[in-house]
Amino acid sequence: VRRVLVTGASGFLGAHCLAALAARGWSDVHAVSRSAGCARGVTWHACDLFDAGALASLVQSLRPSHTLHLAWTATPGKYWTSPDNELWAAASMRLLEELARAGARRLVCAGSCAEYSWKYGLCSEKTTPLAPNSPYGKSKHALQMLLSSTGSSLGVSTAWGRVFFPYGPYEHRDRLTSYVIRSLLAGERALCTTGDHRRDFLYAGDVADAFVTLLESDLDGPINIGSGEAIAVKTVVAAIGKCIGRPELIQLGARPLLADEPDLLVADVQRLRDQLGWSPHTTLAQGINESVEFWKRHG
Amino acid sequence: VRRVLVTGASGFLGAHCLAALAARGWSDVHAVSRSAGCARGVTWHACDLFDAGALASLVQSLRPSHTLHLAWTATPGKYWTSPDNELWAAASMRLLEELARAGARRLVCAGSCAEYSWKYGLCSEKTTPLAPNSPYGKSKHALQMLLSSTGSSLGVSTAWGRVFFPYGPYEHRDRLTSYVIRSLLAGERALCTTGDHRRDFLYAGDVADAFVTLLESDLDGPINIGSGEAIAVKTVVAAIGKCIGRPELIQLGARPLLADEPDLLVADVQRLRDQLGWSPHTTLAQGINESVEFWKRHG
Fold this sequence. Notes:
- By secondary structure, chain A is an alpha/beta fold.
- The first copy, chain A, is built from nine helices and 15 strands.
- The interface between A and B is medium-sized, with 25 and 25 residues.
């Protein structure tokens, strides 16, 4: 019997993962977030995962076979240095321990490209140094190391999907693609950097599909979840301009790039492709179109 | 007012740190271990640090300004893969949180050369990849990352002393120098590897003196605590043979080297020497002599 618990279910990737679980035939789906949400066919639970007692009660009453742990503080501009990062690492370890006590089989967590050193451009699970600069990256990577050494001793199979640059519906309104889309839809200028830096963008629906595929597999350890393609930020922005038909509102070079932003960050997707057997479904034009349609409805 | 709490006080480094604190004029010294011990001028507390309630009570009642956190599972042959490693990481984070609540100023913890990748020989805080292979190294390094990102946000100054190859009195009887000394003192053969591999050995009294110096400083982050010298294992063993006067009992090559033992592991001690202003006091001959005298009394 398969029962899945999704944490952070009300968040950006959470929304896409609930849809991906439904699409892949998961019928006994439990979602948790601080305040209850709703989604068709999903049983929702309100729980503050920082509350150890509440977390224990939730897990012991549900006894999920599988867990997709996405919950983390992700407020743009704040999450890099928030003291919540360490609290999430600690709460996540408690989650693993409670899952083990409840006889869980599988736990998949969301990691980040921020765990890697950003000096090398390509981020490979095997060869790129793990030298996170931020409290966010450090806490994520610390948790990954603790999970990998603890999961097997507790009898829970674990995997760790490192997310790069997801975009799509439900993205925070202040993040890059949402901001540009909302600006252009409102007929306002979108102030951008030069956009010459390249990132590994992946449509959030694809990120979610990869996470659910990972959940269904028995791969363990870290695995990059990216497209494997380095796309210039200006290319993404131009795709939005084209989709909405207002390219003249895009102001490249109107904002400085932050000092520590690297030129290139791209996932090595060999493990994703060859070991998990997964590759992206959605083109940039399709993904941008979905995002634009979302903001037309929610703007 | 300075008050120091020493965890793991009944252990190998703990014994030396209590002596080093006394030697450097610390008068209000509190020691904690699972079962109470004793040491002159030290107030001892029995506490299981895995018990969150007991840990909180201890810290809130003592309210130490300074803490030297040495406690960890260190049973030879077992600690590398023990599930205790993760429990220690979790308990150590609780210790930091309780110290912050109690208004503590400074926390210094024991890290390990096992946090580094062992492919490079030299272990430098700045440049050597942190790629621990073992649950022990992973948990230690995970804790270091969490401390470094959390300590400052909680207002507690933290540092992390990475220990290499300490030897001396109170070392576990089955570890290298203790085993060879006990064998030779008993007139028995000591079965050794070829001893060609080089390690950074440092007399435990010196390790302790460096830890107390670090505790008194305001350096933060990781700092190697080593000699900076790569000494062949056979050189250490020969020094024992010479000290005891039974070199013929040493059987080099009688044991295989474990498959994953690197040829060379040595600390980059630039930070220790230049930023902390510390260097070793004890020669190998002196340190071995102290160890031999210890086993004559305790054998």
